């Protein structure tokens, strides 16, 4: 059974949670299916043709904010149709706008919805329109739909009368690392900083976090790790907001040992986002035993339960109060962190994600 995976920017890659998902789930299914991941050539620093049993095909795209995903998806779908693939597995709403093409040729369609992307602030009216068309295509053509949280499952049932399979993201056991590189690079030691680690895009609400942090009287640092995708104006804006505060540092894109050190030695993890599918960064932070401070959107609050702190989304004062509480109550935070790790490892296992996904694929065949 040949499966074409369409929607990832690169493989292997950590550019977003979607790529981490594809990395783990597709390689985990490689023993059962012949899987090819069609990636966007311009996002790949090196051309890798195979990765852990998965074939990789590099597809060109039109490098603009609005045409990147759609053009890539069209070229990938055409290539996969002529490649004789049996199942077209779309990742996210945007690429799925071309799902009608393989359906015309009698192919099976599977979709993993990584969040209702048309809600994201970085997209304008045209992009949101295309994303909603992608959502409609999923509802109309998909033989199987996977969502990452119960909220999105309820949305598809109510809006499209389609039942979606809720399969949570997974996480691997933490690999702890002492504060070595980060001490030299950012002048921080264990427990001295709050950590934000995600893409620098408007819906991650970094601007809200910076405003809240600047209201604190604290020696703690704020490390903002990540970079933007088609959002250079936003990234420049938030950097400008923090330029006069020496306790706020931008780490850029991090991976490998540096990533492990940042997770291992943070005081707490912060995710103030306004929309999520299910944050890989949040799950990874929890696996490291970090207490987490998150916005109260269902996709975040539903993950941490009582193993962290939540605040009203977009409320700067509420976030500031939570940060102050975290600073003043280290003992309570340690308890939350231990509970968070337990939840992450018990409820978010990649092996379970892979097993449940295989069941959905088997039903599509």
Keywords:
2 domains; Rossmann fold; 6-stranded parallel beta sheet; 8-stranded mixed beta sheet; 365 residues; alpha/beta; 14 helices
Word description of this protein:
The protein has helices at residues 17-29, 68-82, 100-104, 125-141, 150-160, 181-186, 206-214, 232-242, 256-265, 280-287, 298-304, 316-328, 330-347, 350-364; strands spanning 2-6, 34-40, 50-51, 54-59, 87-91, 108-113, 144-147, 165-166, 193-197, 221-225, 248-252, 268-271, 292-295, 308-311. The protein is α/β, with parallel strands linked by helices. The protein folds into two domains: 2-170 and 349-364, Rossmann fold (3-Layer(aba) Sandwich), CATH 3.40.50; 180-347, Rossmann fold (3-Layer(aba) Sandwich). The chain has an eight-stranded mixed sheet, sandwiched between helices. A six-stranded parallel sheet has the order 11-10-9-12-13-14, with helices on both faces. Strand 10, helix 8 (232-242) and strand 11 (248-252) form a beta-alpha-beta unit. The longest helix is centred in the last third of the chain and has 18 residues, at 330-347.
């Amino acid at each position: 059974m040949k499966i074409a995976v369409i929607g990832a920017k690169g493989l292997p890659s950590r550019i977003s949670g979607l790529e981490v998902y594809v990395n783990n789930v597709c390689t985990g299914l490689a023993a059962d299916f012949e899987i090819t991941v069609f990636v966007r050539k311009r996002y790949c620093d090196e051309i890798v043709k195979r990765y852990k049993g998965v074939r990789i095909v590099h597809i060109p795209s039109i490098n603009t904010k609005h045409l990147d995903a759609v053009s890539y998806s069209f070229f990938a779908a055409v290539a996969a149709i002529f490649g004789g693939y049996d199942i077209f597995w779309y990742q996210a709403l945007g690429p799925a706008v071309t799902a009608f093409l393989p359906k015309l040729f009698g192919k099976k369609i599977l979709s993993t919805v990584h969040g209702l992307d048309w809600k994201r602030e970085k997209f304008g009216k045209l992009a949101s329109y295309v994303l909603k068309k992608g959502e409609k295509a999923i509802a109309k053509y998909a033989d199987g739909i996977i969502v990452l949280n119960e909220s999105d499952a309820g949305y598809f049932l109510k809006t499209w009368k389609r039942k979606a399979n809720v399969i949570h993201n997974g996480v691997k056991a933490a690999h702890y690392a002492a504060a070595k590189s980060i001490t030299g690079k950012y002048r921080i030691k264990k427990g001295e900083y709050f950590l934000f680690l995600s893409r620098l895009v408007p819906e991650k609400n970094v601007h809200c976090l910076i405003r809240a942090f600047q209201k604190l009287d604290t020696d703690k640092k704020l490390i903002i790790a990540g970079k933007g995708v088609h959002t250079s104006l936003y990234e420049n804006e938030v950097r400008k907001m923090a330029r006069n505060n020496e306790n706020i540092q931008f780490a850029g894109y991090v991976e490998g040992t540096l990533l492990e050190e940042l997770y291992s030695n943070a005081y707490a993890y912060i995710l103030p986002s306004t929309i999520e599918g299910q944050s890989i960064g949040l799950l990874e932070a929890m696996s490291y035993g970090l207490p987490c401070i998150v916005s109260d959107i269902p996709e975040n609050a539903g993950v941490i339960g009582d193993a962290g702190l939540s605040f009203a989304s977009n409320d700067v004062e509420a976030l500031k109060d939570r940060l102050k509480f975290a600073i003043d109550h280290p003992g309570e935070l340690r308890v939350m962190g231990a509970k968070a790790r337990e939840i992450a490892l018990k409820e978010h296992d990649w092996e379970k994600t892979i097993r449940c996904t295989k069941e959905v694929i088997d039903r599509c065949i």
